[in-house]
Amino acid sequence: MLNEFKGFAVTLKRLLRKPETIEYPDVKRDMAGRFRGLPSLRADPETGEALCVACGLCARICPTSCLEMHVVPSEEGDRELGEFILRSGRCLFCGMCAQVCPVDAITMSKQYELSTQERDGLIYTKTELARFGEQDPDWWAQV
Ligand code: SF4
Ligand code: SF4
Fold first, then answer.
1. Helix (H) or strand (E) holding 58
2. 64 lines ligand 1 (CB under 6 A)
3. How confident is the prediction along the chain (143 residues), in pLDDT tens digits per residue?
């Protein structure tokens, strides 16, 4: 009989606890500071210009070759970033691209809502990656 009471006591204690579950997607969990979501591209907060200098280091270090960039000649006769593609279906979220970037132009955002029913939905362009970078300038995590 004592064991039954012990069992009920455990149940009662659990019932009075604050629930651990959250009502996702209405409520979203605060991700840890070092959480690594989708890589995103950042712009200078003052000028709005993309920070990427098209050096190609991120694409070279990427272990799954999921980054692709097209470099075009700039008006000044230099080179600049034309297009930047991330094939997120192959991304490991390892953060190596962010680690090697000399100007912090590519950083790991906290974006994790990436499910899609279309394969093309896994491909992100420069504009889309910049939008993730813009969402909250403090949102990206240095790795
Ligand atoms: S997080 Fe890793 S796998 Fe994803 S793009 Fe960067 S280097 Fe490549
Ligand atoms: S994101 Fe950084 S590492 Fe990648 S090409 Fe641009 S400047 Fe170079």
1. helix 57-61
2. yes
3. 789 999 999 999 988 898 888 999 999 988 888 899 999 999 888 887 889 999 999 999 999 999 999 999 988 888 889 999 999 999 999 999 999 999 999 999 989 999 999 988 899 999 999 998 887 555 444 44
State the Cα–Cα distance between residues 38 and 112, nearest whole angstrom. Answer: 7
User: What is the rounded CA–CA span in Å between residue 91 and residue 93?
Assistant: 6
Tokens found for residue 128: 């889309």
Is domain 31-135 annotated with CATH 3.30.420.40? no
Residue-range domain boundaries for the chain: 31-135
- Residue ranges of E strands in 88-140: 106-108, 123-124
Tokens representing 92 are 């490991």
Ligand 1 atom 5: residue of nearest CA = 91
Q: Per the structure block, which two tokens stand in for 122?
A: 């896994």
Tell me which of 52, 57, 62, 111 to substitute to probe ligand 1's pocket, judged by most ligand atoms within 8 Å of the beta carbon.
62
- pTM beyond 0.70, yes or no: yes
Residues composing the chain:
143
